[in-house]
Design goal:
With about 325 residues, the protein is an alpha+beta fold. It has twelve helices and five strands. Strands 1, 2, 3, 4 and 5 form a five-stranded antiparallel β-sheet that branches. Strand 2 and strand 3 form a beta hairpin. Helix 3 packs antiparallel against helix 4. It is elongated, with a radius of gyration of 52 Å. About 5% of the residues have low confidence.
């Protein structure tokens, strides 16, 4: 029962969200959208289908707009094979304006080519020189009006009354006048991005091909590394040193000898409990009769010289030598 209520709640929430439209993003500054679209179209006309010499000039000596636009349109032709230009698609919903990361404004339009659509995005920044030029022209009109004792609009009507300008709005008139007479715009394009538009099927196909190529390269490298490791066993043979098989046999024999010695030296638990034999001396002094005779004679002479009497006989020998005691020196 609870699951049903939860499902109904989710469906109702999705219906409400689908009926709500996202508010339009507020741009960083005021921009004449029609002027921006005209500039984007002029950029497409200028940099699309250029010659190799023009491309070299733009890339070598041009500014950021020249380099990005020229290289972008050339890549669209050579890499993506978009074909020849057909038309602009500036219908409702096709032209997009949004804020950039640098305080700029991005204007995007769709261009139709023979093989696929191309999205052209141009970055615009404010042209401070345009506002300065407008202020200079306004000041000139104000000075002329002050000299003649009239208002600024009268001066404008006197000079531009029959020229076709709309004189109802002074600021709009100055904007159009500066744009036409000085070839300046309130906004300036600084970068251009050319992006061919692919369908979802094409994107999935391209992703699959890239994945297959990447996995193939990885497995090829792993197989090559394993082959190199396998060849390392033949390096001693090539260098004229010990054969690999003989080296393995020697290692096995050495391990067997070490195990045998360890078994002989390690006493069993029962033997260690029954008797504990003292460790044998490293040198076999019992069989060396001459050395024993010399040591016994030296001990006997020392005792006779100090006490003058012979002590109790602990050990007799055929040479009448007396050995009182023999101690191991550790």
């Amino acid at each position: 029962m609870k699951k049903r209520y939860l499902l109904l709640f989710v469906l109702a929430l999705m219906t409400l969200l689908s009926g709500c439209s996202m508010p339009e993003e507020e741009l960083n500054y005021d921009i004449d959208k029609d002027t921006a679209v005209i500039i984007v179209k002029s950029i497409v006309d200028t940099y699309d289908n250029i010659s190799d010499k023009e491309l070299d000039y733009y890339v070598t000596d041009g500014d950021d707009l020249d380099k990005s636009a020229a290289s972008g349109f050339r890549a669209a032709q050579t890499t993506d094979h978009v074909g020849a230009f057909v038309s602009y698609d500036t219908t409702d919903g096709k032209v997009e304006f949004k804020n950039g990361a640098r305080g700029n404004i991005l204007c995007s339009i769709i261009c139709q080519y023979e093989n696929r659509p191309v999205k052209v995005t141009v970055s615009f920044v404010e042209n401070k020189g345009f506002e300065y030029q407008k202020a200079v022209i306004r000041k000139q009109f104000e000075q002329a009006a002050a000299m003649n004792g009239v208002e600024v609009k009268d001066v404008i009507e006197y000079y531009f009354g029959g020229s076709g300008y709309d004189l109802s709005d002074e600021d709009a008139f100055l904007t159009r006048y500066v744009m036409e007479q000085y070839q300046m715009f309130p906004i300036t394009p600084d970068e251009c991005e050319v992006s061919p538009v692919y369908s979802k099927g094409e994107l999935i196909k391209k992703a699959g091909i890239n994945t297959a190529i990447g996995m193939g390269v990885v497995f090829s490298v792993l197989i090559f590394i394993a082959f190199i490791i396998y060849l390392l066993r033949f390096v001693p043979v090539l260098l004229g040193t010990e054969k690999a098989s003989e080296k393995v046999e020697k290692k096995k024999a050495k391990k067997a000898d070490s195990k045998t010695v360890a078994k002989k030296e390690t006493p069993s638990a029962s033997q260690s409990k029954v008797e504990k034999k003292p460790a044998a001396a490293d040198d076999n002094l019992v069989n060396d009769s001459q050395l024993v005779a010399v040591i016994t004679a030296a001990i006997n002479a020392y005792i006779d010289s100090t006490s003058g009497t012979r002590g109790p006989v602990m050990t007799d020998s055929k040479d009448k030598l007396v050995v009182r005691s023999i101690r191991r020196v550790r």
